[in-house]
Amino acid sequence: MKNKMHILGIINTLTSLDITYAIYGAGKFTKSLLMLVSDYKLRLPEGIIDDFCLVNEVAGIRVWKPADFDIAGVNEIILGTDFFQDDMTDSIISHWGKQCSIIDLFEQESNCRKLVQQECSRLEDRLTTVLSQLVEAYCSPPEARQSYHDHTKDPVVYEPVFRQIGHDLRSAGVSVHEIAIDIYEFESWLDEFSELKNFYEKMGNAYIEKCLEHFLSFKLLNISKDDILIDIAACDSPLHSACLNKGYDAYSLDLAYENGIHGRKIGADASSTGLPDDFASVLTMHCAYECFAGDADVGFLKEASRILDDNGRFIITPLYLDESYFICTSPYCDQRQNDLDAGALKIWREDQWKVPFDRHYSVEAFIQRNLSQMPKDMSADIYMIANIPELNRHYSGQTIYCYFCFVCTKMSAAPYRTNKNPRN
């Protein structure tokens, strides 16, 4: 099944490419890619490329396959990649409207051809790189793949591994607190924060895991309406808006937002926010810290110390700890842009998430990389969830893997907090 998924990825890449390339160049680039696949002796389904005609709607424009293929049948192909960007299509639409085909446009306007050729040049570099990575991942040994190293994919079977990690942390002198989730308490909280429930229930078998991460933030940080909360690397999470609806003082921060403070959204790098000192009392981070490439993970620890006020605290949930220290990366992402940690294994991602960087620490790596560089005014604690197998049994069909949370508190003898909220 995994090999089939790799083959489908290659096919989808090729067919997505043809939507642009086959219009100009008669599919020559596609054929060169097929030769590359042939060199690696990968067998594609017979007739999948040379024996089909694709008529597809892309942003309302009719895109036709070139006539130089010997058409003997029709194959329906799902274009499941994110490599074909909409900016080229949008440019064409804005200038000519949606009524004529791209081929018609070529006959009418030479600069349209130039626009497509520019897009093709960009795609040629990117897709040649990606295809070679797909082939490399497909041909890689088991020990170079996610399923070999990432024990969160089967959290019940690998419970002994996570318990050993907890033991190793304690043996190394790390403060570890073991707690159990009260299911009734969790579900009561989830009823109160129904916005999160409604948002995450669309995530299939990750639904309960995502909700549990947010519950743990509230439980372990004892968040109250006196706090100023920032949800870090929030993306489109409804946490801050759910909190506002209930009278909490909350913001969301993400690198993807417009830079600066705009209402309740803060556009900034989490390791260099540009916020005033002592701005917040609570920072939450859910399923995001593992994506902080380069030194951003360590940089966040220092930035948290600066922007938290007296006795402020933050949580990272889950904290991805595993037997080995590795960076999990999707073969669909350009590896030339990846900043891998020295000493970490590089492994190929096998699931559906096209994530370029996903860091899992070993105990040794976490202590050396993170705990050894904690700011002096921050205390650090690890919380281990003891009843993860019970939760997985209770919520049948869900995958719940949040064994560890990282909680830090800014130590100070000053009064608990003052309101330093610079609202716009």
* Fourth-level CATH superfamily of the largest domain: Vaccinia Virus protein VP39
Shape: globular
Question: Which percent range fits the helix content?
Answer: 25-40%
CATH architecture of the largest domain: 3-Layer(aba) Sandwich
CATH fold type of the largest domain: Rossmann fold
What characterizes the major β-sheet?
Answer: 8 strands, mixed
- The N- to C-terminal Cα distance equals 53 Å
Strand order of the largest sheet: 3-12-13-8-7-4-5-6
Count of separate DSSP helical elements: 14
Helix-strand pattern = HHEEHHHHHEHHHEHEEEHEEEEHEHE
Low-pLDDT windows of residues = 1-109, 413-424
Q: What is the residue-mean pLDDT, rounded to a whole number?
A: 77
Decide which structural class fits the backbone.
alpha/beta
CATH class designation of the largest domain: Alpha Beta
Question: Any overview of this molecule?
Answer:
It is built from 14 helices and 13 strands. The N terminus and C terminus are likely disordered. The chain starts with a helix and ends in a 14-residue tail after the last strand. It has an eight-stranded mixed β-sheet with strand order 3-12-13-8-7-4-5-6, sandwiched between helices. It has two domains: 138 residues, no CATH class; 267 residues, Vaccinia Virus protein VP39 (Rossmann fold, 3-Layer(aba) Sandwich), CATH 3.40.50.150. Helix content is 38%, strand content 18%.
